[in-house]
Amino acid sequence: MPIRAILTDIEGTTSSVSFVYDVLFPYARQHLPAYLRAHADEPEVAAQLAAVRREAGEPEAELERVIAILLAWMDADRKVTPLKALQGMVWREGYRAGEIRGHVYPDAVTALHAWKQQGLGLYVYSSGSVQAQRLIFGCSDAGDLTPLFSGYFDTEVGHKRDPAAYRRILGEIGHGPDEVLFLSDVVEELDAAREAGLQTCGLAREGGELSGHRTVSGFEAIGLDAGQGSPSADHQAR
């Protein structure tokens, strides 16, 4: 079945892990406390603070306690939806101030443009919030890439190692599972997508294999035949 849509991860796939861990996370950790103290009463922020209290089981927690919880979650790299939403708000300030530029690999930029020209639907699925996804592509070092994408998904649809999340995404984008190719650098995510029926391709930018899945080192090797949207024979699963 020809590929009609691409669903891609960000960290380690379109963008470097070091950008996320060495730039984005430290920026959020440094600026989150002051941001929350300044904006805690705004509805957008207050809703996420309430979600943190529910998730932590501390409904009466004062703001400083909530900040401590969030910093602990950041240190543990917890994939918690309100944390991701609040990080996205902080990053939005950094992007707007010109203090952050989103990193996207040049080979990913080239492939995304080519696939868009071929008429493929392009979608993002990341544990980072939809807002953070739009920022990394909208304020990227390659310019505004958001016009390339037809939709964004985060942990609101479920966790990336849960096949049910991919089924929900399929319901949203309106393609059959065998028409969608999922790209990621994490075996467990690829496994979950395959269990949901999607085609998969692993990105191992430092080399190696993502066990059980077709694995390439960059977007130029994914091998979708021009105009057909189907994986080329040279890159089928080993």
What would your notes on this structure say?
This protein has helices at 17-39, 43-56, 63-75, 81-96, 106-117, 130-138, 163-173, 187-195, and strands at residues 5-8, 121-125, 151-153, 180-184, 199-203, 215-216. The protein is α/β, with parallel strands linked by helices. It has two domains: 5-16 and 103-235, Rossmann fold (3-Layer(aba) Sandwich); 19-96, Transcription Termination Factor Rho, Rna-binding Domain, Chain A, Domain 1 (Orthogonal Bundle). Helix 2 (43-56) crosses helix 3 (63-75) and helix 7 crosses helix 8. The longest helix is centred in the first third of the chain and has 23 residues, at 17-39. The protein has a six-stranded parallel β-sheet with strand order 3-2-1-4-5-6, sandwiched between helices. It contains eight helices and six strands, in the order E-H-H-H-H-H-E-H-E-H-E-H-E-E.
Protein topology:
Blueprint: E1 5-8, H1 17-39, H2 43-56, H3 63-75, H4 81-96, H5 106-117, E2 121-125, H6 130-138, E3 151-153, H7 163-173, E4 180-184, H8 187-195, E5 199-203, E6 215-216
Parallel strand pairs: 1-2, 1-4, 2-3, 4-5, 5-6
Mean pLDDT: 92
| Series of secondary-structure elements, N-terminal to C-terminal | EHHHHHEHEHEHEE
Task: Note the total helix count.
Answer: 8
CATH homologous superfamily title of the largest domain:
HAD superfamily/HAD-like
- Low-pLDDT parts are 226-230, 232-238
The biggest beta sheet is recorded as: 6 strands, parallel
CATH class category name of the largest domain: Alpha Beta
